[in-house]
Amino acid sequence: CTITHPTTKEFYDLRGLSRFPDEQHAVDWHANPYDYGPAKGGNFSLNVCAPLIRSTQKLSKSQNISAMYTDEDEKMVSLGQTSTTLKFRGKKLILEYTGGSACPGDTSYKRSTLIVFTCDAAMVGTASVSYLGEVNDCGFVFEYRTFRACATTPDVSSALSPGVVFAIILGVALLVYMVGGCMYNRTVLHQAGWRQVPHADLWQSMGVWMQD
């Protein structure tokens, strides 16, 4: 549930919006349906890059559902299967869920969900989820306003192997050792030339040993 913009190279991480059953007090995201549905009631349940937490056993295809509508009579309609593939449409960051319940009128088409993520720096620690509309009771559009949709710096350490991280640390340590040692020998011990090098006698003896 992360992506790097192909042009700007900015990094986006939406993993903090995912809800999981093993988290304390975890619940799905909900959106008010407003004027959707014949009874003008019920609610939308969504999760980001993960299946819904609530039970979906009433549905014939109940596994890995990430968007669903439940009416006032607890009838459930799947609006799409789980996906972790974020995409950009211009400057808009989106996530699509497909393969939901059959669309009315033509069962060869399946309901789907399009989620648009909008950067909102004021929404720290939470998100605002809104239902924007639907097309032919088959395609549904939602918006998440959250600080997590703002560009961040990628976690470089997680992308590097342990060997590379160790080499970087070792290189920095050697640089500090050489620069700090030279400055100390020059300013405090008043050494000059190669005698400024930390432990110059040791390095000289090692050079002689290698020549032998």
Could you tell me the radius of gyration in angstroms? 29 Å
Q: What order do the strands of the largest sheet run in, or round the barrel if closed?
A: 7-8-11-13-12
Percentage of residues assigned to helices: 10-25%
Alpha-carbon distance between the termini?
A: 58 Å
Strand/helix succession: EEEEEEEEEEEEEHHH
CATH superfamily of the largest domain: Mannose-6-phosphate receptor binding domain
Low-confidence stretches: none
| Strand segment tally | 13
Task: Tell me which CATH architecture of the largest domain applies here.
Answer: Distorted Sandwich
Total individual domains: 2
Write down the CATH topology of the largest domain: Cation-dependent Mannose-6-phosphate Receptor, Chain A
At the first level of CATH, the class of the largest domain is Mainly Beta
Counted by DSSP, the helix tally is 3
Q: How does the overall form come out from the CA principal axes?
A: rod-shaped
Can you summarize the main beta sheet?
A: 5 strands, mixed
Give the integer mean of the pLDDT values.
84
- What class do helices, strands and sheet pairing give? alpha+beta
Instruction: Bin the strand percentage.
Output: 25-35%
Protein name: Mannose-6-phosphate receptor binding domain-containing protein
InterPro entries: Man-6-P_rcpt, Man6P_isomerase_rcpt-bd_dom_sf, MRH_dom
Transmembrane segments: 159-180
Keywords: Disulfide bond, Glycoprotein, Membrane, Receptor, Signal, Transmembrane, Transmembrane helix, Transport
